[in-house]
Amino acid sequence: MPKESMVLSVRLPRATGERLKRLARRAGRTPSDATARLVEEGLRRADFAFIDFRDSALGRQAFIMGSRLPVWLAAKLAETAEGGAAGLARRLCRPAAHIRAALNYAAAFPDEIAAAIEESASFDLEKLSRLLPHVETFLVRE
Question: CB-based burial of residue 120 (10 Å sphere; 0-12 exposed, 13-18 middle, 19+ buried)?
């Protein structure tokens, strides 16, 4: 939750309020924190086309809608991609508009993206295996 906040009263249908409380409980959050997260993600979805939010091994993060590609990875790959967003889109077999949307999101939230890139760099096979027990190592010989 941001340091600076405001109180906003919202009236919800009873069934929606109960669903919100269940969601908050499952996430170990207060209903207020869960509401704030849902509103923030909804506003970001409205502001950035083709962006969705999901839970992952790195926590809750932005993904390119309809894909398994997190925004931070698109931003990281774009650093070295030839041909800019269009070149990266061809390389990933994704529409260029989706890649541009991810890069727009990354530009708007650089601290979030930098933290995700840093966190992903800290993963080694042992750490990944704790999160994903089915992970296997394959050796490729030429």
Answer: middle
Domain limits of the chain?
Answer: 48-131
- For domain 48-131, give its CATH number from 1.10.10, 3.30.70, 3.40.190, 3.40.50: 1.10.10
What angle in degrees, to the nearest 10, is found between the helix axes of 14-27 and 31-47? 100
Q: 10-53: per-residue pLDDT in tens?
A: 999 999 999 999 999 999 999 999 999 999 999 999 999 999 99
Calculate Rg over the CA atoms of the chain: 18
pLDDT (tens digit per residue) in 62-118: 999 999 999 999 999 999 999 999 999 999 999 999 999 999 999 999 999 999 999
Angle between helix 71-78 and 84-92 (nearest 10): 120
